[in-house]
Amino acid sequence: MFSVSCAPDVVPVAVTHQTTPALWPIRALSRSVTSRGGRDGDVSRWGVGKKKKKKKKSRSRSSSIIREAEHNVEPSCCSIRSNMLSMSDFVSGGSYEQCRETADWLLSNTQVRPTVGIVCGSGLGGLAEMIKDPEIFKYSDIPNFPRSTVHGHAGRLVFGTLKGKPCVCMQGRFHLYEGYPIQKITLPMRVFKLLGVETMIMTNAAGGLNQDYKVGDVMIIKDHINMPGFAGVNPLAGPNDDRFGVRFPCMSDAYDRELRQLAHDVASELGYSHFLREGVYCVLGGPSFETIAECRMLNRLGADAVGMSTVHEVIVARHAGMRCFALSLISNRAVMDYDSQEKANHEEVLETGRQRAEQLEKLVSTVVSRLEHNNNNF
Ligand SMILES: O=P(O)(O)O[C@H]1O[C@H](CO)[C@@H](O)[C@H]1O
Ligand SMILES: Nc1nc2[nH]cnc2c(=O)[nH]1
């Protein structure tokens, strides 16, 4: 049977790899200072006093915050005033100009002209290793790209061919809980569109809410519940740029019906049907896992699996007219029983990914190979 116990060689989560949301404003502040020429930059827009004496005091305070942030240490000051950042610091990312700049930079650094985009979920980065003649870019080297801060997300963009199909693969994605603005999280989708990508394939690790699901099952996402969206947290909020898509995009066809059928056919041929499911994915903000009451509620609302990603990417990709296909690996069972001793944890999530990786990679790569075959139909 499928076992999810942690292997002895599981690497513990490195605390320094993680950026707490609390630290994000400090990093943004650090970037603001750098982009304005460091200590001599114009700090008036952070709301500090205009008088020279006060300015000096604020500057040195800011510098000390930055120094501490750069060393990944909690700042000694207890609060960072929100008025130290402008609105543009919070909503920046995903503008046409930024995406164009990033796409042009990539196009001038690779010969690959991808038509397929892939996003690897937690612990599922092995998919990128299947890419032939890879050309790899670290996120930190790509203009306007955020950085991966989550263990199990390598933070590399891989160009090459998968089963002869030119593709670009995100080996690591961005999540709301990392502290990035939602437009920044989804910036790669718009960049992919500008690169020429037509089909997006997303994978993720998710908790199984459906009581029939087992750890190790793979769920084709047929629909989603955008829980943050209910509170207005939507990557398309803000001015609409018609160059990407319409103001009110339809989401009832978010997950391409033909690609879902193709995946069922491929899974059947590969003998994977016994662990293939199809269901509804619910996104939450994270990073805390769900309480028992929350899991029960989500299950009653019609969600089969719960996670912290994918939906924002799908919304932006659909807005830009790309077809979407998404898979959830059920990495753990959502706890619904107050007597249960089970506890969701990220190591279990990564371990399940390791155990199902080979089959998931085979499923995705075969679907990609058939895209070519079915190209005329799409
Ligand atoms: O959705 P992906 O990126 O696969 O990651 C999932 O796994 C992490 C929790 O273990 C969360 O980030 C959740 O969203
Ligand atoms: N929110 C959430 N995300 C996950 N990612 C992997 N497992 C889970 C889970 O149980 N809950």
From TrEMBL:
It catalyses: 2'-deoxyguanosine + phosphate = 2-deoxy-alpha-D-ribose 1-phosphate + guanine; 2'-deoxyinosine + phosphate = 2-deoxy-alpha-D-ribose 1-phosphate + hypoxanthine; guanosine + phosphate = alpha-D-ribose 1-phosphate + guanine; inosine + phosphate = alpha-D-ribose 1-phosphate + hypoxanthine. Keywords: Glycosyltransferase, Purine salvage, Transferase. Coiled coil: none annotated. It is an enzyme of class 2 (transferase). Pfam families: PNP_UDP_1 (PF01048). Residues 33-66 are annotated as: Disordered. Residues 48-60 have a biased composition (Basic residues). GO terms for cellular component: cytoplasm. Residues 115-368 form the Nucleoside phosphorylase domain. Pathway: Purine metabolism; purine nucleoside salvage. SUPFAM superfamilies: Purine and uridine phosphorylases. GO terms for biological process: purine ribonucleoside salvage. One of its GO terms (molecular function) is purine-nucleoside phosphorylase activity. Its EC number is 2.4.2.1. The keyword Cell membrane does not apply. The keyword Transferase applies. Homotrimer. Catalyzes the phosphorolytic breakdown of the N-glycosidic bond in the beta-(deoxy)ribonucleoside molecules, with the formation of the corresponding free purine bases and pentose-1-phosphate. Preferentially acts on 6-oxopurine nucleosides including inosine and guanosine. Belongs to the PNP/MTAP phosphorylase family. NCBIfam families: PNPH, PNPH-PUNA-XAPA, PRK08202.1. This is Purine nucleoside phosphorylase. It comes from Sphaeramia orbicularis.
